[in-house]
Amino acid sequence: MSQPRAEFEGHFVFAPSFLIAEEVEEAGEVFEGKAIGTAAFADLALAKDQMFTKDADPKQYANERKKGQTVGKRKLGQVTGRTRTGLLREIKRFQGNKTDEKGLRKEAAKVMRTAWRDVFLAGLRAGGTPGEGAGKGKVLVKLDAGDDKWFKSAVQHEMRFLNGFLNAIIDETYVMPLKRRVKMYLDALTSFYESARVIAFPTNTLMWWKGPHDKRTCASCEYLFQNSPYTKLTLPTTPRSGLTICLTNCRDYLFVRRIAPEKVQVLMEGAIPKRDAYIRKLRKIKREGRA
Fold first, then answer.
1. pLDDT tens profile 258-286
2. Quick one: which H or E segment has residue 145?
3. Are 145 and 124 in contact (CB under 8 A)?
4. Is 37 left (phi over 0), alpha (psi -120 to 50) or beta?
5. H or E stretch including 285?
6. 252 contacts 214 by C-beta, under 8 angstroms
7. What would the pLDDT profile of 132-160 be if each residue is shown by its tens digit?
8. I need a labelling partner for 72 at 20 to 30 A (CA). Which of 28, 101, 132, 245 fits?
9. 253 — phi, psi (to 5°)?
10. What is the C-alpha radius of gyration for the chain, rounded to an integer number of angstroms?
11. What secondary structure does DSSP assign to 247-269, as a single string?
């Protein structure tokens, strides 16, 4: 089996795999090994995760998660609003000839990098990672090495979509009204938030794909409904990540519940290959649905 290229190595093992680039699949490389996390690394990560206070003291974790959800959701809303204003400001400066293409790309990247990091931290806090709060001068959460590495990899991936978004602005090829286009692009921030939330969950967490589940449900989400529930190692994506046919218009959410710690090891067996299969199937459904 060929090994994933170096740029895809070391992704945090418990992170949803929306960030894994399609070119990896197109190159014929399998979604396992270092791109997701080797079995050995998974065992080490699991051992580390089980040592966390959130697993050892369920009541303390539940309290942190309750507080974190309030802080995290508030922060998500603040960041989304601030980022929408900032992005529109830079686009209008470009359209008004007050900056050039290079300036637009530089300032838009600065706005988005700040947004991605703030939303990621908000998601970790909402998942139960302890923090000080969301006020000025306070540390929302502190990233450990694994989380920070996942975040940097995800940002590299997201830069491709930002460049595509900006190309449409620069070349004036976008069709829908600008404010609506910006809103759709920024809806993807929710997926960053959800991915971080999943990373922060204890190992003994189950997640169900939930939502309206009606005639408007796309084939991708239907597949995710059918294969629920998921663990941290089998969850293939998060709502509005772009891996489903409905893209950032997804109406669904993750319903979360904890299970007895002794059941975790059984659920983890074969988890990485299972998630690989889910991802392949979702990509196939998306290609066929948008053909």
1. 887 667 666 666 666 788 889 999 999 99
2. helix 145-170
3. no
4. left
5. helix 271-289
6. no
7. 655 666 667 776 666 677 788 888 888 88
8. 245
9. -155, 170
10. 19
11. GGG---EEEEEE--GGGHHHHHT
